């Protein structure tokens, strides 16, 4: 009996000790997980969690009061105040003098009466997007969410709807991750005391400044739209307060920043990062932050190349944001659009080089996504539904592929998102479980042709992760004739109907 009591006491002591150790470990873990606004602390954040590397495709849209004139570009709000510019002439001809009809007068015309977040979320899902969201605020200073910080917002004026909030709700129903993009770092007026920038679009601010322009207003509310703060430090806090409001109210999975984030002081950026990361911890989210020009350290965030590409596989996951239109981000009357083949082939090149694509569409001011864009998205979605296995949850091979057409290492390079690929351009991906490898032909191969794929041959030491068991043509789901020699992989293309966009072979591995 005494022995049983002793054993019981020992067990209790061990249990109590274990609990204390667990609690101590938990306290230490919580302490370690709490992000501080310092580089040392923030660098502990995983820049590219597994889900982001698996996702491959996201979608967003440029939409706001600047969509009303449907002319020029998303820089219409700035250019309309540039006396003598093409946009200024268009504006004064169609809407009147800028002193009489300012940018704020477009807001009641931004009605969005056809905005349907459920239907938009379905469209993004059927296109193949794994994350999506709006331009939360462009350079123009107009917020697309229900804001208490920014009086110029879509819930209080214009559509009088919480565009970001409603769409996020619809996306989450479909298990699509959420994205909020911010471009408002450039909104802050930094030219008021720089006469060399007066009357033209200086390097520091979106809206041009001159004492005689409406952008120099002293109206307390209107100044917030034009970013015309008496003290730029006050604007920097306003910039941060808006981001933190979105994080608090909507818990986005991704925060994405346009160029000019370098204009925001480092301490404010670090505060923003810590706030976003700690919100992720609280909500059990693996959150992501993206920026351009490496304005956020690559230890912490994802680098985005606008309309860009890379020559070779990049060692870190990266992103490019591209337009569905030929050139414009917002809706412009008479815009021409890329065809699905051009878009998909360029996306395949990005995926083969460890990249992710953020595809932009352009709704009209009334909330209509026109049929030209919808037709292209339908074609992209149908292709993704057949070949998505070769895209999602894949990683780069040892080499990205081969061919004559190559993207350049550049952002804003006009050709980077418009490279003309053909079937002679081949790209590779590998399933992250390494049970399959995929070969993409960026066009239509010739039936009966024997292809010597030397880049997979043993001569180049680029063998698949494990021996090849079989090779199938995806879509048709038929076996093809193949032979792996010490020098090359020989493939005989079957006589079948090929996909006009891109075709994929699945290498089943042992």
Word description of this protein:
The model is unreliable at 1-32 (pLDDT under 50). The chain has helices spanning 2-33, 39-42, 50-55, 76-79, 86-94, 117-127, 163-173, 220-226, 232-250, 266-282, 340-352, 371-387; strands spanning 57-61, 131-137, 177-182, 254-257, 288-292, 302-306, 318-323, 355-361, 394-395, 401-402, 426-431, 436-441, 450-453, 468-473, 478-479, 481-484, 489-492, 503-509. It is globular and about 75 Å long. The protein has 2 domains: 50-395, TIM Barrel, CATH 3.20.20; 419-509, Sandwich (Immunoglobulin-like), CATH 2.60.40.1180. Strand 16 (481-484) and strand 17 form a beta hairpin. It contains 12 helices and 18 strands. The chain is of the alpha/beta class and 510 residues long. It is 29% helix and 17% strand.
| H/I helix tally | 12
Strand content: 15-25%
The unreliable regions are: 1-32
Q: Could you give the distance between the termini?
A: 60 Å
Summarize the structure.
The chain is an alpha/beta fold and 510 residues long. It contains twelve helices and 18 strands.
Features:
alpha/beta, 8-stranded parallel β-barrel, 2 domains, 12 helices, 7-stranded antiparallel beta sheet, 510 residues, Immunoglobulin-like
Q: Secondary-structure map with pairings?
A:
Layout: H1 2-33, H2 39-42, H3 50-55, E1 57-61, H4 76-79, H5 86-94, H6 117-127, E2 131-137, H7 163-173, E3 177-182, H8 220-226, H9 232-250, E4 254-257, H10 266-282, E5 288-292, E6 302-306, E7 318-323, H11 340-352, E8 355-361, H12 371-387, E9 394-395, E10 401-402, E11 426-431, E12 436-441, E13 450-453, E14 468-473, E15 478-479, E16 481-484, E17 489-492, E18 503-509
Parallel strand pairs: 1-2, 1-8, 2-3, 3-4, 4-5, 5-6, 6-7, 7-8
Antiparallel strand pairs: 9-11, 10-11, 11-12, 12-18, 13-17, 14-15, 14-18, 16-17
Helix pairs in contact: 6-7, 6-12, 9-10, 11-12
């Amino acid at each position: 009996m005494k022995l049983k009591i002793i054993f019981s006491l020992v067990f209790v002591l061990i249990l109590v000790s274990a609990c204390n150790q667990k609690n101590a470990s938990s306290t230490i873990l919580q302490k370690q997980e709490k992000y501080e606004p310092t580089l040392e602390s923030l660098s502990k954040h995983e820049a590219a969690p597994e889900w982001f590397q698996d996702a491959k495709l996201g979608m967003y849209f440029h939409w706001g009061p600047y969509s009303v004139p449907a002319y020029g570009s998303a820089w219409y709000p700035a250019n309309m105040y540039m006396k003598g510019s093409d946009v200024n002439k268009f504006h004064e001809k169609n809407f009147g003098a800028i002193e009489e009809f300012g940018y704020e007068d477009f807001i009641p015309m931004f009605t969005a009466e056809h905005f349907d977040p459920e239907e938009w979320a379905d469209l993004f899902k059927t296109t193949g997007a794994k994350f999506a969201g709006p331009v939360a605020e462009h350079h123009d200073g107009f917020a697309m969410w229900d804001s208490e910080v920014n009086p110029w917002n879509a819930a209080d004026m214009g559509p009088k709807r919480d565009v970001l909030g409603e769409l996020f709700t619809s996306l989450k129903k479909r298990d699509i991750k959420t994205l909020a993009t911010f471009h408002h770092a450039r909104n802050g007026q930094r030219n008021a005391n720089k006469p060399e920038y007066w009357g033209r679009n200086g390097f520091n601010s979106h809206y041009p400044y001159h004492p005689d322009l409406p952008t120099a207003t002293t109206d307390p509310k209107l100044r917030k739209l034009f970013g015309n703060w008496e003290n730029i430090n006050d604007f920097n806090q306003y910039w941060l307060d808006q981001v933190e409001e979105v994080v608090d109210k909507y818990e986005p999975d991704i925060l994405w920043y346009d160029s000019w984030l370098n204009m925001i002081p480092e301490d404010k950026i670090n505060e923003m990062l810590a706030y976003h990361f700690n919100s992720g911890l609280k909500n059990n989210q693996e959150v992501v932050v993206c920026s351009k020009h490496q304005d956020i350290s690559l230890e912490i965030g994802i680098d985005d190349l606008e309309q860009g590409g890379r020559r070779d596989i990049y060692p870190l996951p990266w992103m490019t944001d591209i337009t569905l239109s030929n050139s414009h981000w917002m809706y412009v009357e008479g815009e021409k659009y890329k065809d699905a083949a051009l878009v998909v082939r360029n996306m395949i090149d990005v995926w083969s080089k460890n990249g992710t694509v953020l595809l932009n569409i352009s709704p009209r001011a009334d909330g209509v996504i026109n049929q030209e864009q919808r037709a292209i998205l339908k074609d992209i979605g149908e292709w993704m539904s057949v070949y998505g296995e070769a895209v999602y949850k894949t990683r780069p091979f040892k080499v990205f592929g081969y061919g004559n057409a190559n993207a350049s290492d550049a952002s804003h390079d006009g050709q980077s998102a418009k490279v003309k690929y053909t079937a002679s351009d081949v790209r590779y991906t590998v399933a992250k479980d390494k049970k399959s490898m995929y070969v993409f032909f960026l066009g239509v191969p010739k039936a009966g042709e024997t292809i010597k794929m030397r880049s997979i041959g043993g001569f180049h030491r680029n063998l698949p992760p494990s021996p090849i068991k079989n090779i199938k043509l995806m879509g048709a789901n038929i076996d093809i004739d193949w032979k792996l020699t010490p020098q090359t992989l020989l493939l005989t293309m079957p006589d079948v109907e090929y996909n006009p966009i891109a075709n994929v072979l699945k290498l089943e591995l042992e």
